[in-house]
Amino acid sequence: MAAVRVAALYDVHGNAPALEAVLAEVDADIVLFGGDLVWGAWPRETLALARSTGERGRFIMGNTDRGALTDREDASAVWVQERLSDEERMFVLSWPATLSLDGVLYCHATPRSDTEIVAPMSSEERWADVLAGVDETTVVCGHIHYQYDEQRAGHRVVNPGSVGNPTIRATAWWAVLDGGRVELQTTDYDTRATAAAWRATGFPRADFADELLEPYSLERLMERIP
To answer: What is the pTM of this model?
Structure first.
Protein backbone atom coordinates (compact mmCIF):
# COMPACT_ATOMS: atom_id res chain seq x y z
CA MET A 1 0.00 0.00 0.00
CA ALA A 2 1.34 3.43 -0.93
CA ALA A 3 2.26 5.79 1.88
CA VAL A 4 -0.08 8.67 2.59
CA ARG A 5 1.49 12.06 1.95
CA VAL A 6 0.47 14.42 4.77
CA ALA A 7 1.08 18.17 4.88
CA ALA A 8 1.24 19.18 8.56
CA LEU A 9 0.17 22.79 9.06
CA TYR A 10 0.34 23.92 12.66
CA ASP A 11 -0.25 27.14 14.61
CA VAL A 12 -1.78 29.22 11.84
CA HIS A 13 -3.20 31.60 14.45
CA GLY A 14 -5.78 33.19 12.19
CA ASN A 15 -3.13 34.38 9.74
CA ALA A 16 -5.07 33.96 6.50
CA PRO A 17 -2.39 35.42 4.17
CA ALA A 18 0.20 32.97 5.51
CA LEU A 19 -2.15 30.01 5.16
CA GLU A 20 -3.16 31.02 1.65
CA ALA A 21 0.51 31.16 0.63
CA VAL A 22 1.22 27.74 2.10
CA LEU A 23 -1.84 26.07 0.60
CA ALA A 24 -0.73 27.30 -2.83
CA GLU A 25 2.38 25.12 -2.40
CA VAL A 26 0.85 22.07 -0.73
CA ASP A 27 0.85 18.83 -2.72
CA ALA A 28 -0.48 16.16 -0.38
CA ASP A 29 -3.15 13.51 0.07
CA ILE A 30 -4.09 14.92 3.47
CA VAL A 31 -3.75 18.41 4.90
CA LEU A 32 -3.52 18.10 8.67
CA PHE A 33 -4.26 21.26 10.67
CA GLY A 34 -2.52 20.71 13.97
CA GLY A 35 -4.34 23.14 16.24
CA ASP A 36 -4.34 26.85 17.01
CA LEU A 37 -5.97 27.53 13.67
CA VAL A 38 -8.61 30.23 14.21
CA TRP A 39 -7.42 32.43 17.09
CA GLY A 40 -5.98 35.48 15.36
CA ALA A 41 -6.82 38.38 13.09
CA TRP A 42 -8.80 36.51 10.41
CA PRO A 43 -10.64 33.64 12.12
CA ARG A 44 -13.46 33.20 9.62
CA GLU A 45 -11.25 33.64 6.55
CA THR A 46 -8.65 31.24 7.93
CA LEU A 47 -11.24 28.59 8.74
CA ALA A 48 -12.74 28.96 5.26
CA LEU A 49 -9.32 28.42 3.68
CA ALA A 50 -8.73 25.33 5.80
CA ARG A 51 -12.14 23.91 4.93
CA SER A 52 -11.50 24.55 1.25
CA THR A 53 -9.18 21.52 1.34
CA GLY A 54 -12.38 19.44 1.37
CA GLU A 55 -12.03 15.73 2.06
CA ARG A 56 -8.25 16.11 2.35
CA GLY A 57 -8.60 18.25 5.47
CA ARG A 58 -8.09 16.84 8.95
CA PHE A 59 -8.21 18.86 12.16
CA ILE A 60 -7.08 18.56 15.76
CA MET A 61 -7.74 20.92 18.64
CA GLY A 62 -5.22 23.45 19.90
CA ASN A 63 -5.29 25.30 23.19
CA THR A 64 -6.13 28.65 21.61
CA ASP A 65 -8.91 27.11 19.49
CA ARG A 66 -10.50 25.82 22.68
CA GLY A 67 -9.84 29.00 24.61
CA ALA A 68 -11.03 31.30 21.85
CA LEU A 69 -14.43 29.61 21.75
CA THR A 70 -15.02 29.03 25.48
CA ASP A 71 -13.48 32.04 27.25
CA ARG A 72 -16.03 34.79 27.87
CA GLU A 73 -13.59 37.19 29.54
CA ASP A 74 -10.52 37.44 27.31
CA ALA A 75 -10.94 40.26 24.77
CA SER A 76 -9.23 38.37 21.96
CA ALA A 77 -11.39 35.28 22.53
CA VAL A 78 -14.59 37.31 22.50
CA TRP A 79 -13.39 39.05 19.33
CA VAL A 80 -12.97 35.67 17.61
CA GLN A 81 -16.31 34.36 18.85
CA GLU A 82 -18.09 37.38 17.39
CA ARG A 83 -16.67 36.64 13.94
CA LEU A 84 -17.60 32.97 13.71
CA SER A 85 -21.07 31.58 13.10
CA ASP A 86 -22.69 29.03 15.40
CA GLU A 87 -21.94 26.33 12.83
CA GLU A 88 -18.30 27.35 12.57
CA ARG A 89 -17.87 27.39 16.34
CA MET A 90 -19.45 23.95 16.68
CA PHE A 91 -17.22 22.61 13.91
CA VAL A 92 -14.06 23.82 15.68
CA LEU A 93 -15.21 22.50 19.06
CA SER A 94 -15.76 19.04 17.52
CA TRP A 95 -12.07 18.53 16.72
CA PRO A 96 -10.25 15.71 18.55
CA ALA A 97 -7.17 16.22 20.70
CA THR A 98 -5.05 13.76 18.70
CA LEU A 99 -5.20 11.89 15.42
CA SER A 100 -3.28 8.85 14.20
CA LEU A 101 -2.67 8.69 10.45
CA ASP A 102 -0.53 6.17 8.58
CA GLY A 103 1.27 5.18 11.78
CA VAL A 104 2.00 8.76 12.88
CA LEU A 105 0.46 10.39 15.96
CA TYR A 106 -0.49 14.05 15.52
CA CYS A 107 -1.10 16.16 18.61
CA HIS A 108 -0.97 19.87 19.37
CA ALA A 109 1.55 20.21 22.20
CA THR A 110 2.10 16.67 23.52
CA PRO A 111 0.06 13.47 23.24
CA ARG A 112 -1.48 14.11 26.67
CA SER A 113 -1.93 17.88 26.69
CA ASP A 114 -2.52 20.81 24.35
CA THR A 115 -0.61 23.21 26.62
CA GLU A 116 2.41 21.22 27.83
CA ILE A 117 5.76 22.61 26.72
CA VAL A 118 8.55 20.32 25.58
CA ALA A 119 11.41 20.98 23.17
CA PRO A 120 14.52 19.34 21.72
CA MET A 121 16.46 20.83 24.65
CA SER A 122 14.24 19.07 27.21
CA SER A 123 15.81 16.17 29.09
CA GLU A 124 15.50 12.61 27.88
CA GLU A 125 13.69 11.81 31.13
CA ARG A 126 11.07 14.45 30.38
CA TRP A 127 10.63 13.16 26.86
CA ALA A 128 10.21 9.61 28.16
CA ASP A 129 7.51 10.82 30.53
CA VAL A 130 5.71 12.83 27.84
CA LEU A 131 5.76 9.97 25.32
CA ALA A 132 4.98 7.13 27.73
CA GLY A 133 2.31 4.83 26.31
CA VAL A 134 2.56 6.17 22.75
CA ASP A 135 2.63 3.27 20.30
CA GLU A 136 3.42 5.26 17.16
CA THR A 137 7.12 5.61 16.44
CA THR A 138 6.66 9.09 14.95
CA VAL A 139 4.92 11.91 16.81
CA VAL A 140 4.13 15.31 15.29
CA CYS A 141 3.57 18.17 17.70
CA GLY A 142 3.47 21.96 17.58
CA HIS A 143 2.68 24.64 20.16
CA ILE A 144 6.16 26.12 20.62
CA HIS A 145 6.40 27.43 17.03
CA TYR A 146 9.88 25.96 16.50
CA GLN A 147 10.60 23.60 13.61
CA TYR A 148 12.66 20.46 14.27
CA ASP A 149 13.00 16.75 13.47
CA GLU A 150 14.64 14.85 16.35
CA GLN A 151 14.94 11.41 17.93
CA ARG A 152 13.65 11.48 21.51
CA ALA A 153 12.88 8.65 23.96
CA GLY A 154 12.67 6.03 21.21
CA HIS A 155 10.43 8.13 18.97
CA ARG A 156 10.93 10.40 16.03
CA VAL A 157 9.47 13.77 17.05
CA VAL A 158 8.65 16.34 14.38
CA ASN A 159 7.54 19.92 14.97
CA PRO A 160 6.47 21.59 11.70
CA GLY A 161 6.85 25.07 13.19
CA SER A 162 4.21 27.77 12.91
CA VAL A 163 2.49 28.81 9.71
CA GLY A 164 1.21 32.09 11.12
CA ASN A 165 3.39 33.16 14.07
CA PRO A 166 7.01 32.48 13.16
CA THR A 167 10.12 32.13 15.24
CA ILE A 168 13.71 32.46 14.00
CA ARG A 169 12.77 33.85 10.57
CA ALA A 170 9.79 35.73 9.16
CA THR A 171 8.26 33.02 7.00
CA ALA A 172 5.56 30.34 7.20
CA TRP A 173 6.90 27.06 8.60
CA TRP A 174 5.34 23.64 7.90
CA ALA A 175 6.22 20.04 7.08
CA VAL A 176 5.34 17.08 4.88
CA LEU A 177 5.38 13.46 6.06
CA ASP A 178 5.49 10.82 3.35
CA GLY A 179 6.04 7.31 4.60
CA GLY A 180 9.31 7.40 6.49
CA ARG A 181 10.36 10.71 4.95
CA VAL A 182 9.98 14.11 6.60
CA GLU A 183 10.32 17.26 4.54
CA LEU A 184 10.70 20.44 6.60
CA GLN A 185 9.29 23.34 4.60
CA THR A 186 9.03 27.12 4.60
CA THR A 187 6.93 29.44 2.45
CA ASP A 188 7.82 33.10 2.12
CA TYR A 189 5.06 35.72 1.90
CA ASP A 190 4.77 39.45 2.55
CA THR A 191 4.96 39.51 6.35
CA ARG A 192 5.33 43.29 6.46
CA ALA A 193 2.07 43.88 4.59
CA THR A 194 0.40 41.16 6.65
CA ALA A 195 1.50 42.80 9.90
CA ALA A 196 -0.01 46.11 8.81
CA ALA A 197 -3.24 44.42 7.74
CA TRP A 198 -3.31 42.49 11.04
CA ARG A 199 -3.26 45.71 13.04
CA ALA A 200 -5.98 47.19 10.83
CA THR A 201 -8.40 44.38 11.72
CA GLY A 202 -8.60 45.55 15.32
CA PHE A 203 -7.68 42.14 16.75
CA PRO A 204 -6.65 42.89 20.36
CA ARG A 205 -3.27 41.12 20.21
CA ALA A 206 -1.14 43.49 18.14
CA ASP A 207 1.99 41.81 19.54
CA PHE A 208 1.44 38.99 17.04
CA ALA A 209 1.77 41.56 14.25
CA ASP A 210 5.04 42.72 15.80
CA GLU A 211 6.33 39.15 15.76
CA LEU A 212 5.71 38.90 12.02
CA LEU A 213 8.32 41.65 11.66
CA GLU A 214 10.69 40.54 14.42
CA PRO A 215 10.20 36.83 15.18
CA TYR A 216 11.46 35.40 18.44
CA SER A 217 15.10 34.36 18.25
CA LEU A 218 16.03 30.86 19.40
CA GLU A 219 17.55 32.36 22.55
CA ARG A 220 14.37 34.28 23.41
CA LEU A 221 12.23 31.27 22.64
CA MET A 222 14.30 29.06 24.94
CA GLU A 223 13.71 31.48 27.82
CA ARG A 224 10.05 30.42 27.73
CA ILE A 225 10.75 26.67 27.74
CA PRO A 226 11.23 24.97 31.14
So the answer is: 0.96
- Once rounded to an integer, what is the mean pLDDT over residues 86-114? 97
Q: What is the CATH number of the domain that holds 210?
A: 3.60.21.10
In this predicted structure, the answer to whether residue 226 has a pLDDT above a threshold of 90 is: no
Measured CA to CA in angstroms, residue 24 lies from 103, 174, 216, 218 at distances of 27, 13, 26, 28
Cβ-contact 119, 144 below 8 angstroms: yes
User: Strand (E) positions, the chain?
Assistant: 5-9, 30-33, 57-59, 98-101, 104-107, 138-140, 148-152, 155-159, 172-178, 181-187
Domain count, the chain: 1
User: How, if at all, do strands 155-159 and 148-152 pair?
Assistant: antiparallel
Domain that holds residue 15: 5-222
Instruction: Count other C-beta atoms under 10 Å from residue 136's C-beta.
Output: 18
